[in-house]
C-alpha cells in the first residue's frame, strides 16, 4: 500500500457527514481499486498453522469466516457507525434480524421490554410472540405520554424501544425525554431510525443507547436489497456481535456493498426527497377532496415544533386522508399511474400505500382506531421524481373522487 492510500485510509473517520458517507470504512486491498472491493468469500486462508491458531483462539484479528468477519460488511458497519456517531455497528440480514439480535444479546427470562405501541408491526410481533415465549415480559405504551413510560418502566426493565417519527402519521416522539426516564431505571433505550436515517436524526446524540435500522429502506434508498444494522457503544454492541457469531443472521458481502453505495448518496437523496415531500404536502393541503394531511413539515401538524428541534428535516414519508373512506382512498390509488403501488418505502421512486388494508391490515379495528389509521388514509413515500410530475399524478387520483 502506498503512502497516499495509507493517508486516505487514516482520514476516513473524519470530516463532515457527507465526507464520512463517501469515505468512512473505505478499506483498500492494495490492488489500487477506487470503489470498495466485494469480498464474496465464505472463509479466509492463513499462511501457516500458527496464524490459524492465532485467528481462531487468540483473537489475532485476522479474518476467519464471513458469518462474522467479512471486510465488505465491516466497511458498511464502520461507515454507518461513523454516520450515527456510534463506536460500533453490527450489520444483519434484515431490519428484523437486527431487533432479533438485540433481544437475544440483551435479554433474559424475567426481563421486561417497554415498547412504544407505534412501531413496525413485525417488531411488536417479534417481542410479544417470540420473546414472550421465553419469559420476557413486554409492556406497550403510548409513546407520546411520558407518564405512561414512567409507569411502565420498572426495575426489571432492560430495554425500551421506540420509532420516531411514527408510520404513517409522522408524529414525533421526544427521544431525549424518554431516554431520561429509561435511564432512571437503569435500562437502555433503542431507537429505530429507519424513517429519518442519520442524515436527519441522530438518536445517540439525543440520549438513546442504541440505534436500529432496516437498511432496506432509505439507507439503500433504491429498493435493491434487504438488510439491517444496530449501532451503539462498544459495550452494548459487543454482546450483539457475539450473538451474531453464534446465531448467524448475517448480512451478505454483496448486500453490504450495495448499502455502502447507498450511504454515499444518502444525504443528498434525503434532502431532495424531503423538499419534494414538503411541496407535495402543501399542495395536498389545499385540495378540497383531502380532509387532512399528516406531515410534520406543515406548521399545523402537532409534532411540527418537536420535529424542528429533534430532526434536521421533516422526512420523505407523509400521509393524507381523503373523502369517502376506503372506497375513496382506493379510487385515488387506482387512478394514479406514475407512483408505485407497493408496501415498501424509502425508494428513489415514490410509493403509494393504503395502510388500513395492507401494512396495518392485520390489526383489529380498535387497534387501527388507536393508531389513527382511518380507512381514507393514504401513505406516500416521496422519491426523486420532479414534484410537478407527482402532483400531476396525484391530481388524476383526486379527480377520480
Ligand atoms: C421495514 C421496517 C423494519 C423491518 O425491516 P426489514 O429490513 O424489512 O426486516 C423495521 N422498522 C421499520 C420502521 C421498518 O420500516
Question: How would you summarize this macromolecular structure in one to three sentences?
Answer:
This protein is α/β, with parallel strands linked by helices and 401 residues long. 41% of the residues lie in helices and 14% in strands. It has helices at 3-11, 17-23, 49-57, 71-84, 95-106, 121-130, 146-152, 175-184, 197-200, 234-247, 253-264, 266-285, 304-310, 325-335, 365-371, 387-399, and strands at 88-92, 112-116, 137-141, 157-163, 188-192, 210-214, 228-232, 290-294, 317-322, 340-341, 351-353, 377-381.
Overview of this protein structure:
The protein folds into two domains: 3-264, 3-Layer(aba) Sandwich (Aspartate Aminotransferase, domain 2), CATH 3.40.640.10; 266-399, Aspartate Aminotransferase, domain 1, CATH 3.90.1150.10. The protein is 41% helix and 14% strand. It contains 16 helices and twelve strands. The protein has a seven-stranded mixed β-sheet with strand order 1-7-6-5-4-2-3, with helices on both faces. It has a five-stranded mixed β-sheet with strand order 8-9-12-11-10. The longest helix has 20 residues, at 266-285. The model has no long low-confidence stretch (mean pLDDT 94). The structure holds pyridoxal-5'-phosphate. Residues 94-96, 120, 123, 163, 192, 194, 214, 216-217, 226, 228 line the site of pyridoxal-5'-phosphate.
